[in-house]
């Protein structure tokens, strides 16, 4: 989109002097018609006066007067239409084109005509609107780029500084006991794992954002796929003393076109997020499979602390963390839910969230079925 905007912007700057020259000719013709007609009218009146003076025939003079009057009325009507249907719209269009050539895309030609110029003006307004939207997208991408760099710098600076401090302490002999050395090495190892995860998530998210991630789509019957997947999650979560249940509420076969690995990753990110933030005893996670309005719905519920209403609109933003204090004890890159959203949308689906504070949250993945 940005490339097309740049190309169109360059086109407006090409041959600018030549376009100005054509417009000067156009204005010259316009002035000739505007000021030439009164002179012609005076000339005709002079001829009429001379005819009356020389011929002296009142009937002939009246005939010529009526003829000239009708001709002038027709000419004036034609000139009025020419002025309002061509010259004025052309002037406004030229002024708008000059504004776009200067980089001002917030322009619109407010002139309603029903001829070919009306079609041209409508097309111009549509083009100007597209250029304006492209400019907004460009500015948004630039803002996102700056935010991304700032977030990456912040998220990498803390673990790197921690690693550097512990290594220097060990190197300079400030740590005497082996127990403390092992503790520091464990922290260093934890921070390196976090940085690797952050880099992997960033790499995946950037490929998703640029639409360069390869997907291996298959038409898969959703019920057996979910049953196998839920068995894996059940084993893993129960090992961590987390209650897990899966409910299949679909009565018939439905096929969904999906990438097994990517949908699994999206679900894993959501469940992982519930585990990270559900820092209370007796954490329970429930996954349900439903079919509604030609959509397969995967509901992921938890009985965690929930998400406050003011934070729900930002939950899928990259690097967004609900509570920075609660993320210090575990490795949270702030990209998990953003990646889940991108993965689901790449399948033509949608992801939503609802939550009640102190009662839990419910994430719903909706995927279209194959017909």
Q: Quick recap of the structure?
A:
The chain is α+β, with helices and mostly antiparallel strands and 371 residues long. It contains 8 helices and 7 strands, in the order αααααβαββαββαββ.
Could you characterize what this model shows?
Residues 84-136 form the HAMP domain. This protein is of the alpha+beta class and 371 residues long. The chain folds into 3 domains: 2-104; 157-209; 218-368, Heat Shock Protein 90 (2-Layer Sandwich), CATH 3.30.565.10. The protein is 62% helix and 13% strand. The strands form 2 sheets. The protein has a 5-stranded mixed beta sheet. The protein starts with a helix and ends with a strand. Mean pLDDT is 79; it is low at 12-17 and 324-330.
Distance between the termini: 32 Å
Number of domains: 3
Largest sheet: 5 strands, mixed
Low-confidence stretches: 12-17, 324-330
List the secondary-structure elements in sequence, H or E: HHHHHEHEEHEEHEE
Mean pLDDT: 79
């Amino acid at each position: 989109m940005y490339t097309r905007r740049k190309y169109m912007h360059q086109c407006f700057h090409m041959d600018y002097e030549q376009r100005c020259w054509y417009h000067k000719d156009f204005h010259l013709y316009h002035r000739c018609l505007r000021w030439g007609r009164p002179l012609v009218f005076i000339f005709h009146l002079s001829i009429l006066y001379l005819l009356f003076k020389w011929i002296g025939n009142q009937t002939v003079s009246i005939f010529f007067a009526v003829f000239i009057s009708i001709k002038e009325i027709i000419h004036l009507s034609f000139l009025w239409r020419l002025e309002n249907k061509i010259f004025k719209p052309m002037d406004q269009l030229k002024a708008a084109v000059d504004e776009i050539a200067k980089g001002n895309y917030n322009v619109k030609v407010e002139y309603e005509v029903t001829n070919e110029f009306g079609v041209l003006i409508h097309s111009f307004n549509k083009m100007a609107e597209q250029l304006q939207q492209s400019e907004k997208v460009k500015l948004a991408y630039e803002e996102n780029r700056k935010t991304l760099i700032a977030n990456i710098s912040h998220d990498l600076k803390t673990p790197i500084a921690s690693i550097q401090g512990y290594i220097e302490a060990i190197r300079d002999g400030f740590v005497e006991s082996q127990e403390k050395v092992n503790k520091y090495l464990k922290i260093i190892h934890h921070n390196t794992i976090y940085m690797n995860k952050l880099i992997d998530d960033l790499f995946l998210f950037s490929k998703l954002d640029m639409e360069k991630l390869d997907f291996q789509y298959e038409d898969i019957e959703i019920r057996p796929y979910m049953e196998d997947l839920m068995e894996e999650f059940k084993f893993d979560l129960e090992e961590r003393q987390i209650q897990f249940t899966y409910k299949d509420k679909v009565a018939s076969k439905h096929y969904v076109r999906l990438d097994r690995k990517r949908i699994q990753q999206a679900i894993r990110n959501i469940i992982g997020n519930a585990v990270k933030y559900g820092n209370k005893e007796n954490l329970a996670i429930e996954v349900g499979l439903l079919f509604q309005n030609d959509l397969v719905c995967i509901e992921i519920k938890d009985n965690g602390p929930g998400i406050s209403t003011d934070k729900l609109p930002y939950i899928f933003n990259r690097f967004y963390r609900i509570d920075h204090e609660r993320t210090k004890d575990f490795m949270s890159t702030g990209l998990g839910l953003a990646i889940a959203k991108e993965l689901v949308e790449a399948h033509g689906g949608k992801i939503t969230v609802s939550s009640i504070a102190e009662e839990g949250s419910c994430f719903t993945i909706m995927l279209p079925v194959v017909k």
